[in-house]
Amino acid sequence: MAVSFVTLFQWRLNSVLLLLDNEILLLGVKDQILSLVSKLDEVGSYLGDPLFWTLHAREMASSFLTLYELEMKEKDQMVSFIRKLDKVTGVSGDVERIWACYKTWVSEIRGTLREADDYIDEFIMKVYVQTEQDQKESTAEFGSEIEIIKSRVSEIMNRKPQLGFSPNLEDIKKLLRSKFDEETPLVSCMLSYMNLTYDLKLSLLFCCAFRWVYRKTKGDLVRVLVAAGLTQEKSGELMEDKAQENIERLVDLGMLEEEVSIWDSFSVPSPYYEFSLTVMNADSDSIIPPTARHVSILEEANTITGMNSLLHSLFISAKDGLSEASSDCLRNVLHNAKLLRLLNLENTKLKNLPDEIGQLLNLKYLGVTHSELKELPESISNLQNLQTLDIYWSGCEFELSNGVLNLAQLRHLKMFQPSDDGEVRVPQGISRLRNLQTLEGIYAGGGIAEELGIMTQLRSLEVRRVSEDHADELYFSVMKLTRLQNLSLLVERERESYDSSSSLEYENSILPCLESFSPPPLLQTLELEGRLIEMPLWLGSMENLTTLRLCYSHLSENPTTILQFLPNLKYLQMFKAYKGRRMEKEFFRAGGFPKLEHLYIASHNLVEWTEIEEGALPCLKQLSIYNCMELMVLPEGLQHVTTLQILDLWNVHEDLIRRLSPNGGPENYKIKHIPLVKYLGHMSHGF
Fold first, then answer.
1. Under DSSP, is residue 191 helix (H, G, I), strand (E, B) or coil?
2. For residue 579, what are the contacts with CB-CB under 8 A and spacing of at least 6?
């Protein structure tokens, strides 16, 4: 992790060069910064020595043994692993001395770079509020400080431990892999973890902040990793794309796991979660160390007090709101932690944010979800470095103030409030936010629809309470958004005609004017909520579409006629999308839905699902049937969908459950190949 720390600081230095867009200011410090980056290359090269890799692996295994109660077999594996590491390094008799020297030396480097990192934060806060002349003076002082930091790093490098002979790292890894394989899974997982690149290892550490209380979507994790500085900004590239690559890589390695019941939601599984805690020298119940810079408090299990003023990240997930004492402590933390970069508050039920939030000039990520906020403090306009503002599920009638328009660096704005149709009214001039990529939860009336057409940098857009009075302008604007990848359109509910007892919810809430719409070419995710008179023909031409949600469409026609030959569709949700009583084999033809992995069907009207043609749904992993109370049988041919791993049956007729029962159910043959069947939330392997 020492190499990771050095590399991350080099990225931070490079970001300062991007920040100083004034050529005169840049010339004053550019040479000093590049010289320090070069000196840190020497540090990184030294820390990359194979001996340090083996010593770090040994220390991690030893800490794991100390922190966790293991079964005897796993404990023996770890002990054997440590002995093998000592043997391959050839320093078994001297390993404790070498490791002690190494840790002392690394601690010096880490301390120096942490102080330097803090100095950068203070410099950024200072220049943002200064006149041009004062900025020049501050930049000159900053350049001098960079020279001092370089001298300290050089002096520490002159005292680096002498290593002598170092073995070949690839030979070590090859030998360890031959000795520890599938029969020693815990050690094999540790080796996989140790072999992660620095950016992946740091990314996994930040993903651990969300492990238990709330699963996070891929988009949420991307925004956190970008704000944490774990992706380097390069010309012509978006940091979000690199962060997404890292997340997908961790998923491929099995170190991030998709939640089976929540689409696109992830958590860190065991033992990688425990490995990450071992690296942090902590366990989930530990008291917060006074020197901690990144703190995650789950279910308010730890006190919010006792955190130092150098805090960089704070994640709080309350069980059922913050206590009054904890709210007061949070205010004190925000008053003192001027260097805070990430602040995520979940389920705190805060009624207002303290004005101190406006003093956090380095803040890049602010998440306040499941709160009771009705407005943001005026001081929010001071957060000139803010990249993400997530106020999903705020208080009723929440409105966005004009102060948000001053957040020039804002890249992601996510909103939802639980009254009306969930829409949030944004101030006119929202198109001034030229860096905005995500804009979710907005109402597009009052001239906002026209503004959207200027925001060609948008990649994700969610519009609520869509109605005829602005639909034409909205669709015309959306068609200009050539970079758009995710689009959600949710209709305005017709309240006067809505009958909560009706099975056709939103029956008179028609999503208007869709026949004149043409989707942007890169669109991957589409959500349409509201009644459709007929299936839009343009849906059949969306070759990049991977996710489609049709909610309250109430179609009389078969919606899959158009959809089943979309080449890249992986997730299909039909929530009251079809109001017919019968689905036949035409719905799922042989070769249909070639890449579909998740199929979700909810319908109060569906009585019969007769057949799936053999060869349909060749990649299906999960089938979810919700609120189909009239459905008595599952389709013939389901037994041929051999890729199916999960069957969800929620709120279905008890006769259907009896027919599928492994205890003599006449139709159990249709599902007996499925490893995991869930009924009304009760999980059963093989039902």
1. helix
2. 504, 554, 555, 556, 603, 605
